[in-house]
TrEMBL record:
The protein, known as: Endoribonuclease L-PSP
Residue stretches making up the Endoribonuclease L-PSP/chorismate mutase-like domain: 6-133
Pfam families referenced in this protein's UniProt entry, alphabetically: YjgF_endoribonc (PF14588)
Domain of life (superkingdom): Bacteria
Length: 153
């Protein structure tokens, strides 16, 4: 049965990837009570890793598109945490976004807006969240990594 989130994804022309497997010695998510803590999801699409460095060889728009992919991977992990039933998602609580950037790059929030805007488009008010956006050197040269905290039923 299709739920409202699946319908909204389809209306936006978006699909969730399979929940990515962890790349090291950690789990993709932890459930504690009604809270799901999702490990950092790196920017990737069907072709592979989305690599780049903001302020060097990647535009803010390209970075925001990479952040959108991270948001979709976060939702895929929440769906896995909910046993495939994304209708259990009550709200996005907090995102922490990391942007692979040069020392003089200052538009980290604009990049992470790619994830925030997507979650609000999909979830409405339940997608509004607290957030941090910082610069970092990221693993494998990816452009963006985002971790999230979600409330589920």
């Amino acid at each position: 049965m299709t739920n409202a989130i699946d319908s909204r994804l389809a209306a936006l022309g978006l699909t969730l990837p399979d929940a990515p497997a962890p790349a090291a010695n950690y789990v993709p998510f932890v459930i504690s009570g009604s809270t799901v803590y999702v490990s950092g999801q790196i920017s990737m699409n069907a072709e592979g890793l989305i690599k780049g460095r903001l302020g060097d060889n990647m535009s803010v728009e390209d970075g925001a598109a990479a952040a959108q992919r991270c948001a979709l991977s976060l939702l895929a992990q929440v769906k896995a945490a909910c046993g495939g039933d994304l209708s259990r998602l009550k709200r996005v609580v907090k995102l922490t976004g990391f942007v692979n950037s040069t020392p003089d790059f200052t538009d980290h929030p604009k990049v992470i807006n790619g994830a925030s805007d997507t979650l609000v488009e999909i979830l409405g008010d339940a997608g509004r969240h607290a957030r941090s956006a910082v610069g970092a050197i990221l693993p494998l040269g990816v452009a963006v990594e985002i971790e999230g905290i979600f409330e589920i039923a």
